[in-house]
Amino acid sequence: METEKKTHTAAEQMTDRDLSEQIKKVTKESHVRAENTELMLSFQRGKVTLPQYKLLLCSLYEIYQALEEELKSIEKDLEYFYGQDWREKIVIPAATKRYSHRLRQIGKENPEFLLAHAYTRYLGDLSGGQVLGRIAQKSMDLKNGDGLSFFAFPGVSSPNLFKQLYRSRMNSVELTEEERNGVLEEAVRAFEFNIQVFEDLQKMLTVSDNNLQSSMTQSKPVKASTLHMSENIYTSSLLRMVLGLFVALATVSVGMYAL
Ligand code: HEM
Q1: Could you read off the pLDDT of 139-173 as tens digits, one per residue?
Q2: Could you tell me which residues come within 8 angstroms of residue 251 by beta carbon, excluding any fewer than 6 positions away?
Q3: Pocket test for ligand 1, best of 8, 18, 25, 31 (most atoms within 8 A of CB)
């Protein structure tokens, strides 16, 4: 972190009042907890299994569907693993539904809080996520980038530069003291949602181990009803448009710089 700080130009110099610094500070402990969930530990040890990875992709799809409009990369991965009728097969645990419900709720009531969620997922994807992508490729011996589109950011040539730009855009968002505190609290909550998703997925894998693993490795349909926790993905186009607009405000300008 120190090294990264030294590379900032005078214009990008961070202060203790910067949202990007504060958000990192308040979520530091949560980050350690997220890294140490069973699912993330399996990943880091190169022990991630196909059933674990497939279920994780299902949840990420649900989360990103609520977070943004552009879903093409996860859809591509899901189609690779589950086949063309993946929409009927994907499995979403209760914790993931709670997470996406929260995203939709704040999209309506406190859209500025979406900043905390965009931060937690995108900066994570561009940090540890890049390492996880390489581990996933090796652990499951995936070839030609198949099933790994989620981790790829073809428009981002330098994740570090992109993260710096992202932070400076975050810092330029005008927030009242109350809104700023709300965003910081929401960031801790965002990590909590992610931790709960990992725990739920791990539970699902343990509970339905034999049943689920055999049906998944054979790419046969998994009956949502047999898992008691799943629901088919549902989309409200109006809501997605509103969320998309907000996220666009917070992130697209950064993306344009990186292109
Ligand atoms: C195997 C699990 C994980 C590993 C090994 C990992 C590793 C890392 C590393 C090395 C960084 C860069 C730290 C720095 O720049 O000082 C980072 C940043 C970050 N990670 Fe993770 N991470 C993991 C899981 C997660 C999860 C589950 C989330 C949230 C869903 C997450 C969200 C973030 C965020 C938001 C940042 C940016 C911090 C900032 O610069 O403000 N990470 N991660």
Answers
A1: 999 999 999 999 999 889 999 999 999 999 999 99
A2: 118, 122, 166, 169
A3: 31
Q: What is the distance in angstroms between the CA of the first residue and the CA of the last residue of the chain?
A: 25
- Residue 258: is its pLDDT beyond 80? no
pLDDT digits (tens, 9 = 90+) for 51-81: 999 999 999 999 998 887 545 878 899 999 9
40: Cβ below 6 Å to ligand 1?
A: yes
Give me 4's structure tokens: 């990264």
Q: pTM score, two decimals?
A: 0.76
Residue 32 sits at the vertex; the CA angle it makes with 4 and 196, to the nearest 5 degrees, is 130
E-strand stretches of the chain:
none
Packing angle of the helix pair 159-172, 19-26 (nearest 10 deg): 110
Ligand 1 binding pocket includes 31 (Cβ within 6 Å)? yes
- Determine how many CB atoms are found less than 10 A away from the CB of residue 239: 14
Ligand 1 touching residue 127 (CB < 6 A): yes
